Amino acid sequence: MQDRTSVKFIWVMILNFIITIAEFLGGIFSGSLALLSDALHNLGDTGAIVLSFFAHLISKKNKDQIKTFGYERAETLAAFTNGVALVIISFFLIIEAIGRFFKPEPIKGNIMLVVAIIGLIANIISMAAMHNDSKDNLNVKSTFIHMLSDALSSIVVVIGAIFIKIWHWEWLDPTLTILVSIFILYEAFKIIKNAADVLMESNPSIDLDQVKEIMLTVPEITNVHHVHLWKYSDQLTMLDAHVNVQSNLETAELETIYNKLEQKLSSLGINHITLQAECTRGLKEDMIENNKND
Fold it and tell me: Which domain does 265 fall in, by range?
């Protein structure tokens, strides 16, 4: 990561931590559960930014004899952890909000409104700081999306504070809390699913039939079997396959075939290919063989 981007990360982390403390205090003194929920949202996002930042640094470590694939999945583990934490926080807030319907507490709308506006301004500043770098860096982009969700959450709290201040609709506070929590849950489950798919080495929605069709356009290949296609990290999609070829091919010719396949399959986003050439073994086998050790 470039030094300029690293400095932005640090400033955004500090700014979000300050927002979190301010909203926690504002929520306690105003009695606003929506403000407390936004504070917890910001706390989760601050933790996410910290984890993403350090996970990114770890992911840049060189491969070694223990981690022969390298450390890129540190970012995936951080994303999965952040997602689980957000789910737990969201369920806690929903339970607290439901309790407020049956046992409402007075809310000081003025404090709630001032703190919410400060939080919104700070979130907009954070978004502006990360916007340019988010165009070319997926990790920075995820941080930008966190800031966007914070800004939306702050907007909801501001609206709630205005209604509570003018019309004293205190029931709106737990209602908005539930809505914000549902939104966080939705985003958290997407993060968890995407991270789990990477950790479980799932196919990143690439059509295997299309893969086979492309590979069979090379005349020397007669069959493709024992295929494994998975997303190792945000930047790396891998393919491992056995291909049946003519028995009279030499090593140099096989290397030419491999190069052709790398170029053809790159159009599908596959950027790391390992192939095993065979003549007759597996000639009648399918791409995916069930209940067999590969």
Answer: 208-278
Note whether 247 and 268 are same-domain residues: yes
Q: CB count, 10 Å around CB of 269?
A: 11
In this structure, is residue 10 part of a structural domain? yes
CB 65: neighbour CB atoms within 10 A?
5
Question: CATH number for the domain including 17?
Answer: 1.20.1510.10
Contact predicate 95/101, CB 8 Å: no
What is d(CA 138, CA 147) in angstroms, rounded to the nearest whole number?
14
Q: At 131, list the tokens.
A: 């916007």
pLDDT in 10s for each residue of the chain, 294 residues:
445 767 777 888 888 888 888 878 877 887 766 667 667 767 777 877 887 788 777 877 888 888 888 888 887 888 788 788 778 877 887 887 788 777 765 555 577 677 778 878 887 888 888 777 666 665 667 677 767 767 776 777 777 777 777 777 767 777 877 887 788 788 788 888 888 898 888 898 899 999 999 999 998 999 999 999 998 887 789 999 999 998 888 888 999 999 999 999 999 999 899 999 998 888 888 777 665 555
Domain count, the chain: 2
Q: Which residues of 192-211 are buried (b: 16+ CB within 10 A; e: fewer)?
A: bebbebbeeeeeeebeeeeb
